[in-house]
Amino acid sequence: MIRPRLTEPCCRALNDYFILLVAIITLSCLASLPIRAATNAPRLKQIVEVDGPLVTLGDLFSNAGENGHVAVFRSPAPGTTGRVSTARVLAAAKKHNLVQKNHPTFEMVTISRSSRVVRIEELEKLIRQRLDDRYPRIKGRRKLIIRLPRALENLHYDKKVQGELNLSHFDWSAASERFIARFSLADSHLDPVVIKGTARLMVETGVAARDIPRGTAISQRDIELKYIKYNPRQSSPAPALEEMIGLVARRRLQQGRQINRSDLEKPRIIRKNQLVTILLEMPGLVLRTEGKALADAVKGDSVRILNTRSKRIIHATAIADGLVSVSPKHSDNSGS
Known about the structure:
Layout: H1 8-39, E1 43-44, E2 47-50, E3 54-56, H2 57-60, E4 61-62, E5 71-74, E6 81-85, H3 86-94, E7 108-113, E8 116-118, H4 120-134, E9 142-147, E10 155-157, E11 165-172, E12 178-185, E13 193-208, E14 223-229, H5 241-244, E15 248-249, E16 264-265, E17 268-270, E18 275-282, E19 285-293, E20 297-298, E21 302-307, E22 313-320, E23 323-326
Parallel strand pairs: 2-7, 18-23
Antiparallel strand pairs: 1-4, 3-5, 6-7, 8-10, 9-13, 11-12, 12-13, 13-14, 15-16, 17-20, 18-19, 19-21, 21-22, 22-23
């Protein structure tokens, strides 16, 4: 069998090819070494965010290595941002044998500290709840206007502080509308936050929509609802709309005047000296007779009635216009 023989030029070309291939592979391996080394090298961050009160090398550098836990600076207050020069950071790192070969292109490092945020709306909500608890009679009809200092911003606490926010003290004057509120976090030794402001407490009340003569039964068209400043010293707050409908004006009410409870009364269904029907009900028997009222009465009131037949005075209950009822045990009672 005859084997083909390579010519000398072919051998040289093949040899050059293998030499070039080995060189390419070698160069590729060598080129990857610096890249890998650069990837694992410490690198200073330009923007840093921390959770706690200290800034460590691990916060400041990528690939900080075994010294990453070492604290080198105090962090800014919760919810705020501070800046430190790059040179100062590199000098602090060098003390712990952490060196970045290539100098960063930026001159300052920005450090922000995250926080637990208590918003102003949460503070206002606690104030509203406190006043609702203090004046439950007007809850649902009140309007509260709270004014806090313009410079007041959201409160920021360390993220580890998770206690419930409490309104630990609240001193408010209805006359001056000024208050002092002290807020604190449960299970925390942090100092309370004291805030001063004003709170105007208003209550929805009815005013006369027109001149209302004495004795007029109040209807919805007689009343206009407005918010007025609430006076806690009043023995009873102004009545709600539904409480006024059907009551009678005790006195003349001028248009625009606030309507108080003392201005209204239940309609009188029995009038003094009015002839009334006396109703006596017993099992299987209903008796009616005539009497004369000795006083005015509203529905449900006890009223003295003169029996016009027997001339005796009895005590009856007003149940309808011109009608009173009497129980059997009272039908024989008499008095002067």
